[in-house]
Amino acid sequence: MTEVRRPEPASRSRGEETVYQAWERFVQGEDDIRGVRPEIAISWHRCRDQYRVDPHLTEAPVALAEVDHALEHDVVFAELGFRAASLAHEVGNIGGIVTITDASGRVLAQWGDQATRTAAAKANLAPWFCWSEGATGTNGMGTALMAYTPVMIRGAEHWCRAFHDWTCAGVAVRDAVTRESVAALNISCWRSELPTTAAAWLGNAATMTQRILRRRARDDGAELMAAFNHTRSRSKAALAAVDPAGRVVLADDTAGVLLGIPGSTPAPDPAVRWKPELPEFIQAAKYAAKQAARNPGWLGSTQIFTRLANEPTAISFRPVFLSGHLIGNLVSFGVSEGDPLPRTGGDGPALAQPHRMVATRDNRMVLLRLPEVSFAQSDGNDVWLSTDQGRLRSASPGLDRLETELSASGFLRVHRQYVVNLGRIREVERRCKGEMFLVMDDQEQTMVPVSRRNAPAVRRALAI
């Protein structure tokens, strides 16, 4: 192999100098981000104000020794490893390296140019070190885990000054059902540019790998439907089949009404699931899945408030396995059997509620008090906020995440595209076909639609 000469650090171009100057201001506490791409500015905000990563960090920390992940994710790691190794020679020839991480940002493997790997080792860009944003700041792997599309991080766009000589491109592989990150694939070059084919290759590798997860989700969904039909024929209790994330594959008419989802209607594809608008139910389902994974003979029960009842309803969880692998639970309503679940519905501390929201406008970060936000609207993977300062792009990468962050702060999901501030509703308009719209108190008096399945929760929240 022909030896690749390492270029010396070049003087920054005008654009690179603009980003570096913005970085210097931002790490000192200013919010002026002129010349910085929005996705980078949002990442910087997380690093500075949420994770409090030291911008003068010189190496990544050691990853946690034990990280929980689903069994099928091992197949994803193997598939990504195969695809990364197959490109190692090509990437190595241009002085680059390829890495894969798990969902926590822990580097699992690395391939590529030996000289670059030696330089990377000085920053702990190597297996068993953590490159999540929360640990190491803005970087190709960690930022990809937070994004829904491939990301490119160039030079001073890295949060830590010690990594400004690197250019990285990363992409996350996401679960077909929950859309949560499973792994990240990344290409890095030291003091040189990435090949123009890097982004296309990463996107293709992620797409091919996600097909494995989608096939597995489809098989699991079909098995949960079969278990549902078998139990339904022998029981009169309202019944639902849910996956480990609390998403519903199938529910009978009664359970559908209680959960606020279509009853006796399977999702269009077994890999697609209905999401109940009941956070307490989802938390209970996740807890039940963890218990059943540890003990296959486990049964559990708890009580939750459902859509139409003023009193809590008893629910019981019975695990369903496929080839020894937990694929979900059958949930019976009005039945109480097995071990009681904690009333919190989880086995960890409650999440701290935010006191403000972060958005971007032109070249600046905008810090918003919650009462300033009227509603949030999704547009693909972006979220836009209607605020007293106008329409702003949210720093949150998805409406589901925003809903989780604000659910205990007076915000409610009313439609698959809208989360509203209950305190900013001025009027409720009902139309002849039962349609409901919320008239917000913003300057435009925006009318936000309420979906049929969310209408009961809205009526209960507004006491109407």
From TrEMBL:
<dbReference type="Pfam" id="PF04397">
    <property type="entry name" value="LytTR"/>
</dbReference>
<dbReference type="InterPro" id="IPR046947">
    <property type="entry name" value="LytR-like"/>
</dbReference>
<dbReference type="InterPro" id="IPR029016">
    <property type="entry name" value="GAF-like_dom_sf"/>
</dbReference>
<keyword id="KW-0238">DNA-binding</keyword>
<dbReference type="GO" id="GO:0003677">
    <property type="term" value="F:DNA binding"/>
</dbReference>
<feature type="domain" description="HTH LytTR-type">
    <location>
        <begin position="357"/>
        <end position="464"/>
    </location>
</feature>
<protein>
    <submittedName>
        <fullName>DNA-binding protein</fullName>
    </submittedName>
</protein>
<dbReference type="InterPro" id="IPR007492">
    <property type="entry name" value="LytTR_DNA-bd_dom"/>
</dbReference>
